[in-house]
Amino acid sequence: MDEPLHPDVAELGFLIGTWRGRGTGVYPTIEPFTYEEEITIRPASGKPFLVYEQRTRRPATGEPLHAEVGYFRAVGGPTVELVVAQPTGIAEVHTGTVRDATVHLRSVEVARTPTAKEVTSVERTLVVEDATLRYELHMGAVGQPHQLHLKAVLHRA
Amino acid sequence: MDEPLHPDVAELGFLIGTWRGRGTGVYPTIEPFTYEEEITIRPASGKPFLVYEQRTRRPATGEPLHAEVGYFRAVGGPTVELVVAQPTGIAEVHTGTVRDATVHLRSVEVARTPTAKEVTSVERTLVVEDATLRYELHMGAVGQPHQLHLKAVLHRA
User: Fold this and answer.
1) pLDDT by residue (tens digit) across A103-129?
2) Cross-strand bridge partners of residue A152
3) Residue B121, SS3?
4) Tens digits of per-residue pLDDT, B63-93?
5) Which residues of A touch B94 (CB under 8 A)?
């Protein structure tokens, strides 16, 4: 937290921190699952974006599951953008809004390497209240309609 | 380097490390510039990818310039994929090959947030020889044809 905060990202400041918690995943094509998660969101040398890093583990074994990295961009007023890279070969590019400590983002494009799974739409909602971050991720993928995939509750570490 | 290396990424092992050096940027729409750069490429808990982080600074002042994060994916044989997120609102998804300590990647898709610059094609070549990493980045952007944009020489830290 030593890095100065760019004035444009002040509205996203409530996201900054290290967050730990648990989530659940569902989708018609898979068995439901639970995961442990750590999210870090931090400013970047006075630039108008926040750096985002995430990883999840299997609760019983600690085995790494998903990971992603990217940037939250403040682009003026309540408009927010998100760029995310995933080791599964997928990159998401979102646009959305921030209001009342709630960020709502919808994918503009989901880019895929030739070997990646077919993901066609992603929608992410993050809400911070006191020291708790809750998010939901909806996804359209592998021929299935856009629907709830992930839901998690994390606490500021 | 405590993390075990997934056998599929063994062929990319020559990229692993922290690399520091200098580069030059050119493009018809901008003044030529130089930059200092640090690249870190590291394994990820035995998973079949490498984590990639990069940032550049203005040599005279140390002011942060570009940054990007992403993943090199080993997907079988000499085939390599790269997923990169940039705080400029751009995500690149590449496919390519690794051969003789040379990785050659071409963008399959370049995804952009609504406020990002128009980047249409990116090509990245990385060559490691002894403790030196050289790369070139070609780019088609803002109406200009695909051409050399960045060239850098870095040394293993």
Assistant:
1) 999 999 999 999 999 999 999 999 999
2) A23, A135
3) strand
4) 999 999 999 999 988 999 999 999 999 999 9
5) 113
> Within an 8 Å CB–CB cutoff, is residue B71 touching chain A?
yes
Question: Where along chain A do its domains lie?
Answer: 7-129
| ipTM of the complex, rounded to two decimals | 0.94
pTM > 0.80: yes or no? yes
Overall fold of domain A7-129: Lipocalin (2.40.128)
Q: Does A110 touch chain B (CB under 8 A)?
A: yes
Q: Do B113 and A91 touch (CB under 8 A)?
A: no
Other C-beta atoms closer than 10 Å to the C-beta of B56 total 23
> For residues B64 and B55, is the Cβ–Cβ distance under 8 A?
yes
Measuring CA to CA, how many Å separate B142 from each of A93, A124, B27?
A: 19, 30, 10
Chain A residues with CB-CB distance to B108 below 8 A: 111-114
Closest-CA distance, B45 to chain A, in angstroms, reads 7
